[in-house]
Amino acid sequence: MIPIDRNLLKEFALFATMSTDDLDNILSGSTSRLLGRNEVVFKQGDMAHSFYILLHGRLKVSQVTADGQQIIVRIINPGDLFGIAKALKRDSYPATAKTVSESLILCWPTNLWDQLMKEHPALSTNALQTVGARLQEAHTRIRELATENVEQRVAHTILRLVRQSGKRVEQGVNIDFPVSRKDIAEMSGTTLHTVSRILSAWESAELVQSGRKKILVRQPHRLLLLADGIIEGCA
Fold first, then answer.
1. Which band of pLDDT confidence, cut at 50, 70 and 90, is reported for residue 10?
2. Looking at 29-127, which runs of residues are DSSP E strands?
3. 152-189 confidence digits (pLDDT tens)
């Protein structure tokens, strides 16, 4: 277990307004874990024994469908609550959470959920916002699958990653964690072959630059116009 400085927690909006006593109370029931890349935090179907907050790194959350297809349902960013099966009235985790880079997490036993939500309204509010945001994201992705062509869906997927973890650099905006073409395919509901074809066309058009698990968006505004169907695609 790694000792966590309460000042680290105050960097996140969830804890920014909490008093020192509140932070100490929250930390007293938690344990910390430092995880390497590609480590599983929990698996789909496991009993939900804990809930978590990510302090550093990135995780991807994936589900296996009834027909055996794996899809990435979301990326967990620093400051995010995750593994909150209790808030969904579930006894088991509905998906698998796995690190994509070295990550530091805080975890609490699920049996502390009700007590912490009652004692710390900021946590309760954040949990509600988290559930609401994930529901909204799910609705958005369903709409995209139903109404957009595949190139638009891939564009929207990459733009979501830019909003969540984009880092501005001289050449454009870099997605600041390892993301593969297979990941993009799973998030946009298409195939690896199709994503590879689209990214190759975008590279020729100088929209993006991609390498091994790296994506640099060179023209974010143009990619947004493509995603919204305002300009024609390149692929």
1. confident
2. 31-35, 40-42, 50-56, 59-64, 70-76, 81-82, 96-99, 103-109
3. 999 999 999 999 889 999 999 999 888 999 999 999 99
What are the extents of the domains in the chain? 6-139, 148-227
Give the chain's largest Cα–Cα span. Answer: 56
Mean pLDDT over each residue of the chain, to the nearest integer: 91
Cα–Cα distance for residue pair 35/114, rounded to 1 Å = 27
Exposed/middle/buried for 4, CB within 10 Å: 0-12, 13-18, 19+?
middle
Cα 137-51-166 angle, rounded to 5 deg: 45
CATH class in words for 6-139: mainly beta
Whether residue 235 is predicted with pLDDT greater than 80 in this model: the reply is no
CB 53 within 8 A of CB 120: no
CB 14 within 8 A of CB 126: yes
The pTM of the full predicted model, rounded to 2 decimals, is 0.88
Averaged pLDDT for residues 63-89:
90
Q: Which DSSP state fits 65?
A: -
State the pLDDT at residue 185.
95
Cα separation of 125 and 138, whole Å? 20
Looking at 1.50.10.10, 2.102.10.10, 1.10.10.10, 1.20.1250.20, the CATH number of the domain 148-227 comes to 1.10.10.10
d(CA 57, CA 100): 8
